[in-house]
Amino acid sequence: MGKVVVGLAAGCAVAACVVAAVMVGRRVKRRMGWRRVLRVVEELEEGCATPVGRLRQVVDAMAVEMHAGLASEGGSKLKMLLTYVHDLPSGNEKGTFYALHLGGTNFRILRVQLGGQRSAIIGHDVDRQPIPEPLMTSTSEELFDFIAAPLKVFVGKGDNVSELSKLGKRELGFTFSFPVKQNSFSSGLLIKWTKGFAIEDTINDTVGTLAVGHYHDEDTLVAVIIGTGTNACYLERADAIIKSQGLLTTSRDMVVNVEWGNFWSSHLPRTSYDIDLDAESPNPNDQGFEKMISGMYLGDIARRVILRMSLELDVFGPDSSKLHVPFILRTPLMAAMHDDESPDLREVSRVLKDILEIPDVPLNIRKLIVKVCDIVTCRAARLAAAGIVGILKKIGRDGSGGVAGGKARPKVGSQIKMKRTVVAIEGGLYTNYTLFREYLNEAMAQILGEDVAPYVIIKVTEDGSGIGAALLAASHSASSVVDTVL
Questions:
Q1: Whole-angstrom Cα distance, residue 176 to residue 205?
Q2: pTM for this prediction
């Protein structure tokens, strides 16, 4: 009997040792995996670093590329399209004006009443019409014939709105949300259709944003859209356009559409996640800047990092296949996780569970995911800020003497003769994403320096594609019945 007891005891001891060894092995494996996950985040942070010195290199590169793109067609990745928009709204416009915005899966018709005093938009009416799917791949004639009918009805209903309607002449601003090369203020050549309207294209809305900004504040010289897509435009000096365009002569300044989404420079902090996203996109080697700063892509960059984390440490369970789905983590969801200030990060847990179908993620991993969102967003916002300052440098409003100024950055405390400059910004990424906005504003101040930054003011505008188009129609009412807004 004693031998049996001894044998059982020895067997239990061996089993206990095996279990202990397995548990120790798992802890060691988990600890090593945790270190690898930490390293993934550390490498991301290193790869996305945007110190002020690097941002100023991006500023210089943006200004140089703008100069090259304006000097010759194809001289830069920046198209620098001339819009032939000379007259921005002054605030003195009076009357009723119309706007047509074609973009997305619908079109909008707007009627805007102006009171003749700056910032006095008395009111506006909007009619939104869906575009039937067959027309999205039909001929342009059929598409515009379809649009003309409700436009006629809408304008007809406004005939008693103001005295201007009795004249029989109605000014219409047209925001055409597709790439167009302008031949004049009211005509242009379509570069390409984005069939199916699958891509929200903000290329042509920026001038409308500039118009709204200038209507409210005459010091508005730059407009930026930072939303699903991104672009910028600015008011270029007449002498710079004459010098760059050769035969072109003009006595007035002109709005230039930068198309900055395609900007690229070796100074941009690109990671393996950016490279993979670009390679797998429908337009590889194109829109490089946009893929690093716009709302279309930020969520997917974060998803790719989280996927890499899951491969390094099995904390997401055996089935996290949703992480492999491109763009399943949209930027608003990433922003919701980033803004989560609850002690247990409930919103992070909810997004992981409801969207990515990953339940019960440990709190320490949730904290790392918030860190990933912060790194991706901070880089995007700071690069966008550098892009804006690059435009300011091109027009000599950054305190450095401009792209050809050849001057060193001003020393702290030195006397600088600066003019007030307003940058109009539109787009949900800036207006709705608090941390993105804070990071961008902070970077602008850091790049410009304490002596220059107070002279650059960022103002949020709304509906440049609609109200902005009507304002431009008003400011150009003497020259054309139908004005094309680019």
A1: 8
A2: 0.83
CB neighbour class for 291 (10 Å; exposed up to 12, middle 13-18, buried from 19) = buried
Report whether 216 contacts 243 (CB < 8 A).
Answer: no
φ and ψ at residue 333, rounded to 5 degrees: -70, -40
DSSP letters along 134-181, please? GGGGS-HHHHHHHHHHHHHHHHHHTTTT-GGGGGS---EEEEE-S-EE
User: What digits encode the pLDDT tens for the residues 100-153?
Assistant: 777 656 777 888 878 776 666 655 667 777 777 776 666 667 777 887 888 788
The helix/strand/coil state of 225 is strand
Q: Which amino acid is at 278?
A: D
Question: Can you tell me the distance from the alpha carbon of 260 to that of 224, in angstroms, rounded to the nearest whole number?
Answer: 10
Label residue 64 exposed, middle or buried (CB < 10 Å: 0-12, 13-18, 19+).
Answer: middle
Angle between helices 52-71 and 434-448 (to 10 degrees): 80
> What is the C-alpha R_g of the chain?
28
Paired strand residues for 254:
236
Q: Which residues pair with 128 in a beta bridge?
A: 108
Tokens encoding 317: 């369970």
